[in-house]
Design a protein that fits this description.
Blueprint (H helix, E strand, L loop, with lengths): L5 E4 L2 E7 L5 H4 L2 E5 L5 H23 L26 H13 L4 H18 L9 H11 L17 H7 L7 H21 L26 H10 L2 H13 L3 H5 L6 E3 L5 E5 L14 E4 L2 H4 L16 H15 L10 H12 L4 H8 L9 H7 L5 H9 L6
Helix pairs in contact: 3-4, 4-7, 8-12, 9-13
């Protein structure tokens, strides 16, 4: 909002209006005052009050009655009193999501938006201070009844939690997903406490009823790798081979640029995994340099332009791999595209590569020793020739 003679500085509106030049020797250069609010509508009202005082001061000074100018002071504003717990859940959620949209990547924000949306669909019209632990238990019980694929249908977008539960079918979402949704809602309520709109988090003692069991990935067998590569074609086959022989995540491989490739003489081609304009990285440890296997180096001349895999996205890789599994007849539970990373790590382990060597290639944190922190500070890491030796010892089955 534009307010005459006022401007916003560090979340507070300030008023400044210059006095006529002829009166400046008496009145000073300008009338300056804080409006003591960050709310634009309230600031506009207060600026109008200060403007009236300004006109009064200038009028009296212009009439030569300078003795009457000094007692005239700008109005004093009381700070706006904020009643804790009275703001609506839906209004606070809107502000929280606006903030988080600037802090999170698209995938992470999409997950948070879904969780907060479920909360708002049930408790949106209520004041934040009216939420209780019983409300938290009810929320968790409803979340536990959601179907595993209920949020993936286009026709169900925009539906509230209770409507989604009514449309849900088995299988239900896992306890791990329930815990994630509850955790994201808990972060929102903690933010409300931090902002002073809530006295205490009402869902703090609420827990997911079922025991959370993390579903782990499985490493494909050599026979399964052979069948998958035989059934794959096009870009999916190329990225599948690329991840099997480098241990990269799907997002890391999809975001490789030509400028990330570096030929180091007798050591061959290396790829630098780092944040770029296509993708970010999962962790700081994910930034690393990986030698390209000779089989991959032979593929380079015919691959892409600026990007090694033009137009490829993580969603396209994961969805394409699900269809590939059906064509190849590989239906073992836990076998997903990310399993290629586990296959690479397994091959390193079976060839006798130390754990911290493998960790440096795949971008994992490793203890390296009992005093892992000290080791990490003083070690410069393994050499390029050691990396090359490890990668060259790995080969695709057949």
């Amino acid at each position: 909002m534009r307010i005459p003679y006022a401007y916003l500085k560090q979340q507070t509106w300030l008023y400044r209006r210059t006095y006529p030049r002829a009166l400046q020797p008496v009145l000073g250069q300008a009338l300056k005052q804080s409006l003591k609010t960050g709310d634009a509508k309230l600031a506009k009202v207060r600026a109008a009050e200060v403007n009236a005082k300004y006109e009064e001061i200038v009028a009296k000074a212009g009439q030569g009655d300078l003795t009457r100018v000094a007692p005239v002071a700008p109005p004093v504003f009381a700070r706006k009193v904020r009643v804790v717990g009275k703001e609506l859940v839906r209004d606070l959620a809107r502000g929280y999501l606006n903030k988080r949209s600037d802090e999170l990547r698209h995938g992470g924000f999409k997950s948070v938006r879904f969780s907060i949306g479920l909360l708002v669909s049930v408790f949106g019209p209520r004041s934040i201070g009216s939420l209780t632990r019983d409300d938290g238990r009810r929320f968790v019980s409803l979340v536990a009844q959601l179907g595993r694929h209920v949020g993936k249908s286009e026709r169900r977008k925009g539906l509230g939690l209770e409507d989604l539960v009514a449309l849900s079918e088995a299988p239900r979402i896992t306890p791990q997903t329930q815990k994630r949704i509850l955790s994201q809602v808990g972060h929102f309520l903690d933010w409300c406490v931090y902002e002073g709109t809530l006295q205490d988090t009402p869902f703090r003692a609420v827990r997911v009823a079922q025991k959370v069991k993390v579903a782990s990935y499985v490493a494909p067998t050599d026979a399964e790798v052979t069948r998958l590569l035989g059934a794959a074609d096009g870009q999916l086959r190329e990225v599948l081979r690329f991840c099997l022989l480098t241990g990269m995540r799907a997002g890391e491989a999809a975001g490789v640029l030509r400028e990330d490739l570096d030929h180091r003489g007798a050591l061959g081609w290396f790829v630098t995994v780092r944040p770029n304009r296509v993708r970010l990285l999962k962790t700081d440890a994910a930034e690393r340099e990986v030698p390209l296997h000779d089989d991959l180096a032979a593929m380079l001349p015919g691959m892409g332009g600026e990007r090694l895999f033009p137009g490829l996205t993580v969603a396209a890789v994961t969805k394409g791999f699900a269809k590939l599994r059906e064509r190849a007849g590989v239906a073992r539970p836990g076998l997903v595209f990310h399993s290629t990373r586990k296959w690479f790590i397994t091959q390193c382990e079976r060839t006798g590569v130390p754990e911290h060597f493998t960790a440096s290639l795949v971008g994992h944190q490793a203890a390296r020793s009992e005093n892992g922190l000290t080791y990490g500070i003083y070690s410069a890491g393994i050499s390029d020739s050691q990396k090359r030796e490890i990668v060259d010892a790995i080969g695709l089955p057949g």
